[in-house]
Give the backbone structure.
Amino acid sequence: MATAKEIRAEVDTIFATRWEKRNGQIVPDSEDVELGNDAVQIEGTVLYADLADSTELVDSYKDYFAAEIYKAYLVAACRIIRDNDGEITAFDGDRVMAVYLGDSKNSNAARSALKINWAVKKVIGPAVKKAYPDTSFNLKQAVGIDTSALFVARTGIRGSNDLVWVGRAANYAAKLSAAKEAGHSSLITEAVFNKLNEKSKYGGEPRRVMWEKVMWREMGITVYGSNWWWEI
């Protein structure tokens, strides 16, 4: 059992110990970062894919139905993330976090968001209706994306620890996935939008911008939303 003395000593050590920092070129695993004040610094783009109205889902539907929705959404999102050069870094209930690196990180993440929307609309939704023809459930979700410098540290205690991603991108992406501004299924910051390649920015015939400028009310900044999908 931990004592107050032990907890105070560990907390004091955290604030007294100098950080050892190094630049990284790949997404680190937990074993790559020491449990003490050790960190990897990278430039990355963070994606959060999040089911909407999950509280209503678990409160209003059978537990096995909710579990099937969770599993279907997360397996589709994870497959798409991996196929578009993203690295899955964390799960939190009904949402998944991923990090993209490299010169095409913003376009790859944005393309992932549009493909996840396609999977929801064209694969998971119809599968739900086929398996449960009488259900009134309508699957909704949102993906948030931002890019910034990231400070990756290992937190917790021995035997129970994980990486923590500190930086604007991790915070903004998570918030955007829950913001659902103007009903958009994909939301990206201006920093991401400005780095998109043409394929991830324009679609349709005639070609037009797939992203609409909107005001993110919570933060008071401009972001870009889309309800387009990208067929796999």
